[in-house]
Write a structure and sequence with these properties.
Blueprint (H helix, E strand, L loop, with lengths): L2 E3 L6 E3 L2 E3 L6 H13 L4 E3 L8 H9 L8 E6 L15 H15 L4 E6 L8 H13 L3 E7 L3 H14 L4 E7 L11 H8 L2 E5 L17 H17 L3 H10 L5 E6 L3 H8 L8 H11 L7 H5 L16
Parallel strand pairs: 3-4, 3-10, 4-5, 5-6, 6-7, 7-8, 8-9, 9-10
Antiparallel strand pairs: 1-2
Length: 317
């Protein structure tokens, strides 16, 4: 296991995170965390909505006696009571109530990384960022991140934080895998430019890329899975390991979240850390996805003539 700094902070995080969404019972959770811990992993990612709080309880129980060795991450935003409008959202009231409840379930007095789970377009960005900063200043959370939000929201939030001396987002959490490359249009370039870490959820597209889809594949999915199977056979690895290795090679900012329901599963997926895909294999897999960034990225890349005939003599940064 290698480590990276979380965004523009000094916090050391392992190159893959452990996702706790699928934790269902204590022995299962403990065995998965033990395997991840033994491999050198130190980030466990959960949320107050996973299992209606049960995931947080299981993580808290499994970390007793070793909690400070881990970077513990959880989320708020999603509803805790569908009949109560204020039991959801990124506003101050929901943050305060959700944070205290998560601390109790996790059995800790602080959370290392606290995520806004999804952008709430009804709460002003200023209110969300000030409320998160207040929680940091109170010592209840150390770092903040945001999941599932547009690039302009993240950029505006961090600009406000910079201007007003609030705690900025250190990380972004988004879906990313060979079948879902949308973040390459705006979110990934934004994160790289601003120095944010990118925690990638669903690296195996809910099992599709591991060959475990519970439904027929469409033409594009079948093509990508077929190429994954060919590369796995050539490299003597599994489809899941190839997909994770592809993801890890996209950008140094990207940190895959490996979700597991069995210790054997996390053991197999961690095998991707030792896999470096040949350039030819990456090119084949990229081509199979059929991904295009579209406007404005492709247009801008093709518009060098707009800058004059001398542009070819400029050494780009």
């Amino acid at each position: 296991m290698r480590y990276r700094l979380l965004g523009n902070t000094g916090l050391r995080v392992s190159e893959v995170f452990l996702g706790a969404m699928r934790f269902g019972e204590e022995e299962q959770a403990r065995s998965i965390i033990d395997v991840y811990d033994e491999a050198g992993g130190n980030v466990i990612d959960t949320a107050d909505m996973y299992g209606d709080g049960r995931s947080e309880e299981l993580v808290g129980a499994a970390l007793k006696g070793r909690r400070d060795r881990f970077v513990l991450a959880t989320k708020y935003t999603c509803t805790r009571d569908a009949a109560d409008l204020n039991a959801a959202g990124n506003h101050r009231k929901n943050l305060a109530r959700a944070l205290d409840a998560s601390l109790r379930r996790l059995g800790t007095d602080y959370i290392d990384l606290y995520w806004a789970h999804i952008w709430d377009r009804r709460t002003p960005i200023e209110e969300m960022m000030r409320a998160l900063d207040d929680a940091v200043r109170a010592g209840k959370i150390l770092y903040v991140g945001i999941s599932d939000a547009p690039a302009w929201v993240v950029a505006r939030a961090n600009t406000l934080a910079e201007w007003r001396d609030w705690t900025p987002f250190a990380a972004l959490q988004v879906p990313y895998n060979p079948l879902e490359r949308d973040i390459e249009r705006e979110l990934l370039p934004m994160a790289e430019h601003l120095g944010l870490s990118v925690a990638a959820w669903s690296p195996l597209a809910h099992g599709v890329l591991a060959g475990k889809a519970g439904h027929p594949l469409d033409e594009r999915q079948a093509k990508v899975v077929g190429v994954l199977a060919e590369i796995a056979e050539q490299t003597g690895t599994s489809q899941a390991q190839v997909a994770i290795a592809w993801l890890r090679g996209r950008s140094r900012a990207v940190l895959p979240i490996l979700g597991s329901s069995r210790a054997e599963q996390i053991t197999e997926n961690l095998g991707a850390l030792d896999l470096a895909l040949p350039a030819e294999a990456v090119q084949r897999l990229d081509a199979a996805t059929g991904f295009e960034r579209g406007f404005p990225a492709d247009f801008i890349d093709s518009a060098d003539a707009a800058f004059g005939t001398a542009i070819d003599r400029l050494d780009d940064r």
